[in-house]
Write a structure and sequence with these properties.
The complex is a heterodimer of chains A (442) and B (299).
Chain A lengths: L28 E7 L6 H11 L5 H13 L15 H6 L6 E6 L4 E6 L7 H9 L3 E7 L6 H12 L4 E7 L8 H15 L8 E6 L23 H6 L12 E8 L11 E5 L5 E2 L3 E5 L3 E10 L2 E3 L1 E2 L4 E6 L10 E4 L5 E12 L10 E6 L2 E14 L7 E2 L9 E14 L10 E6 L5 E7 L3
Parallel strand pairs in A: 1-3, 1-4, 4-5, 5-6
Antiparallel strand pairs in A: 2-3, 7-8, 7-15, 8-14, 9-13, 10-11, 10-15, 11-12, 11-14, 16-20, 16-22, 17-18, 17-21, 18-19, 18-20, 21-22
Chain B lengths: L3 E2 L3 H16 L3 E4 L4 H14 L8 E5 L5 H14 L3 E5 H6 L17 H12 L3 E3 L16 E4 L27 E4 L7 H11 L10 E8 L2 E4 L13 E7 L10 E3 L5 H10 L9 H4 L4 H7 L4
Parallel strand pairs in B: 2-3, 2-5, 3-4, 5-7
Antiparallel strand pairs in B: 6-7, 8-9, 8-10, 10-11
Helix pairs in contact in B: 1-2, 6-7
The chains are: A alpha+beta (442), B alpha/beta (299).
The structure holds guanosine-5'-diphosphate.
Chain lengths: 442, 299
């Protein structure tokens, strides 16, 4: 495209930011998931966040006012801000993951609004899979209930680093500190059973309806000295997973059929974990061929290093055979390889998972056939550590499963490396994504 | 010299998606409307495959009611970048009697596009159609997947969508099915404008403030044109306006604006309080308008 667009007149980067920090995503993005049982006030909380960050446009606000009046409310029903599909409105429930956007001066936020009922575990897992932080809602009048266990368990399983426990409807319990303290103690007791020591949990007493401690500090609860929900989110650093080994799954090979790039073979993919540098010794999996990184390209520019999340094109020193499905790792960090896996699987398909059945595993850009060897048990999501014997895994259940693979797979435990430790199971007949797996340590 | 790439998260995500499309499908196409979102897609596709050319064609479903500025722009872009452009016309479907032209006050060819789109998918056997829809545009879109599977009739079954976890996109389909792909799902309107600005992407002139013959109906500013139905008493005046989205003339309302540069547009959007789709007349028809159209295979 033409770079001399006089219409744009854009010599300076926008919004007073330096060029490489401005623009889409230059401002950073924090992905959040929400969890709560029906009527805990999830929609109201999200609506309130949108309202207080001036993210609701006039026409949306008008629609909310109109609908609130029609329903005879004497307050603004912010839950209407996230009002979803017609089918949902009819049933009065949220049936799927919806994405909601808002931004502050500091950054952009994407909320994956996931429904909280038991039967929709799959949506919650989906929403949490990309979240850097989760908000778990608790109704102050009900306290920690069985569904809270499940919500926390899923956030644990997926290793969502930051958890905000928002104790909602404090206005209905007279903003009473003892109610909050009791719920906090109950949740702490649950947390004591968690195996994810690095998880950071914070507790905030809120009224989503009145706006207390959502985006503004509450004057009703002087006994609470912590941050409000938005203030807490604002100071989080988006997790870029610098703490795991670098992996680079090859998505596609770029071979321009042009004279000037005659011998060019670029490997297109995204970097996970630690950064990748020119000169790094890498090993190509599964062939175990070794080479060195020659160039890192992003569009028409060259870089000496690229950090996690970069979609780049890499060239290697040696002319070796590389195809989609291969993965580059640093030569001193080659993960284990095996034709058998033990994994926690969250099942998402109406057709139950049974031993002996075959599925295709998608692990990064690699797909291989897998056979379900055995189901070790259905995992209780209440932190009891219980495993119920089972001969199948039905939709919304989480089970520990042994799989046999048609080829060896290089992998890590999910707790060590999210990118190389997770996979989806694809039904070879319906082609649907039937489940998601979190590889356990061997 | 040490140069460290720190990715722009949304750009990087979009490029990742483009590469998955090319790897997982045999015959993808980019649906090109001439609007800023599809122009942004072209830039992202360029980046995804550089130094190779964009490895799929563009498809434009022409309603015949386009702003001429958009068509000129489209042709120039295609020429400059050496792209392959396929154009299919809604008029042909009307002439063949496949669809009936709407009449009356709110008549538009917008819905008729669906038939032409589905026919083109069949004609070329496209298995993936890349589009510039964003989840922030409208509430039915907020639930759309990045890879959204459509059946033989192009229908969207919102209750039976494939879960999308991590970066793992599953594009496996049966013959006859196709996938709609949305690389900029997670971008907001402001993100797109900021990107156009930092990347210095050229866009059609109608996005900028200009003088235009218009009339007001239902609080929206309509373009006065031979294609747009107008009541006798609706008075045509010249107004200084620009467009926030570029659909066809019969379904795209203008906003009064003096914004002549992208920066001014960005400032205007930040202050503005009418959401982008508020200016799309087709959505005003009913609150559930978009959801209905999507179930029927609309983009
Ligand atoms: N008093 C009070 N009511 C609330 C509060 N938050 C939500 N509600 C009400 O609780 C009901 C359920 O809220 P909603 O947001 O729809 O719950 P969701 O099902 O979790 O999305 C609605 O009637 C809300 O008005 C709160 O903080 N205080």
């Amino acid at each position: 495209m033409n770079t001399n667009n006089s219409k744009n007149g854009n010599e300076a980067p926008p919004l007073g930011l330096p060029a490489d920090e401005a623009g889409a995503g230059g401002m950073d993005v924090l992905k959040i998931a929400t969890a709560g049982s029906v009527d805990d006030g999830k929609s109201t909380l999200i609506g309130r966040l949108l309202y207080d960050t001036q993210s609701l446009t006039d026409d949306k606000l008008e629609a909310i006012e109109r609908n609130s009046r029609r329903k005879g409310f004497d307050y603004l029903d912010f839950s209407l801000a996230t009002d979803g599909l017609v089918a949902e409105r009819e049933q009065g429930i949220t049936i799927d993951v919806a994405h909601i956007y808002f931004s502050t001066k500091k950054r952009s936020y994407i909320i994956a609004d996931t429904p909280g009922h038991v039967e929709y575990t799959r949506n919650m897992v989906t929403g949490a899979s990309n979240a850097q932080a989760s908000i778990i809602l608790i109704d102050a009048r009900k306290g920690v209930i069985e569904q809270t266990y499940r919500h926390f368990f899923i956030n644990n399983l997926l290793r969502v680093k930051h958890i905000i426990v928002a104790v909602n409807k404090m206005d209905l319990v007279g903003y009473d500190q003892s109610v909050f303290d009791r719920i906090k103690a109950d949740f702490e007791a649950l947390n004591a059973k968690s195996s994810y020591a690095d998880q950071e949990i914070t507790y905030v007493p809120i009224s989503a309806l009145k706006g207390d401690n959502v985006a503004k500090d509450s004057t009703e609860m002087p006994w609470y000295s912590g941050q409000n929900v938005l203030a807490y989110l604002e100071q989080l650093k988006p997790e870029v997973q610098h703490d795991s080994a670098m992996s680079f799954p090859v998505q596609t090979v770029i071979r321009p059929k042009k004279d000037e790039f005659h011998d060019y073979r670029g490997y297109a993919g995204k970097i996970y974990g630690n950064s990748l540098k020119v000169g790094d010794s890498i090993t190509v999996l599964p062939s175990l061929t070794q080479s060195k990184v020659k160039n890192i390209h992003f569009f028409d520019k060259e870089y000496s290093e690229a950090v996690a999340g970069s979609s780049v094109t890499i060239t290697l020193e040696d002319d070796i055979n590389v195809a989609r499905g291969d993965m580059f790792v640093k030569s001193e960090e080659v993960p284990q390889s095996s034709k058998e896996l033990l994994a926690s699987i969250c099942w998402m398909d109406g057709k139950a998972l049974v031993p002996g059945s075959k599925y295709e595993i998608q692990h990064n850009s690699n797909r291989i056939l897998a056979k379900i060897d055995s189901i070790q048990g259905v995992v209780a999501t209440d932190f009891s550590g219980d495993k119920m014997d089972a001969n199948q895994l039905t939709i919304n259940e989480i089970g520990q499963v042994r799989l046999k693979l048609s080829k060896p797979l290089f992998h890590d435990a999910y707790t060590k490396n999210k990118a190389t430790g997770s996979f989806i199971l694809i039904d070879t007949q319906s082609n649907t994504t039937a489940g998601v797996g979190f590889i356990e340590a061997p | 010299m040490s140069t460290i790439l720190k990715p722009n998260a949304l750009e990087s995500e979009a490029i990742y998606i483009f590469r998955e499309v090319v790897a997982q499908f045999e015959n993808p196409v980019l649906l090109f409307s001439g609007g800023k979102d599809s122009i942004t897609l072209v830039r992202l596709a360029q980046k995804a495959f550089y130094p190779a050319p964009i490895p799929f064609p563009l498809l434009h479903i022409d309603t015949g009611h386009n702003f001429p500025e958009t068509i000129d722009f489209r042709d120039k872009l295609v020429e400059e970048l050496g792209l392959t452009l396929i154009v299919r016309h809604v008029q042909d479907a009307i002439d063949e009697g496949k669809v009936t032209e709407e009449t009356g006050k709110y008549s538009s060819r917008n819905i008729l596009q669906t038939t032409t789109l589905l026919d083109s998918i069949e004609e070329f056997k496209f298995d993936a159609c890349i589009g510039g829809a964003r989840r922030d545009e409208e509430k039915a879109r907020a639930k759309e997947r990045i890879f959204s599977v459509r059946d033989d009739f192009g229908q969207w079954d919102e209750k039976n969508q494939r879960p999308e976890l991590f970066d793992l996109l599953n594009g496996k389909i049966e013959v006859g099915q196709n996938v709609r792909v949305f690389p900029i799902s997670n971008w907001t309107e402001l993100d797109v404008w900021n990107y156009i600005h930092t990347e210095r992407i050229e866009i059609p002139s109608i996005y900028f403030s200009h003088l235009r013959k218009t009339f007001v109906r239902d609080g929206l500013i309509w373009s006065a044109s031979e294609y747009v139905y107008k009541e006798e008493d609706e008075e045509v005046l010249e107004r200084i306006v620009r467009f926030r989205t570029v659909g066809d003339m019969t379904c795209t309302a203008a906003v009064e604006s003096e914004a002549e540069t992208i920066l001014q547009i960005v400032e205007e959007i930040k202050l503005s309080t009418i959401s982008e789709r508020g200016a799309r007349i087709d959505d005003k028809r009913s609150e559930a308008a978009m959801e209905k159209r999507k179930q029927q295979g609309y983009f």
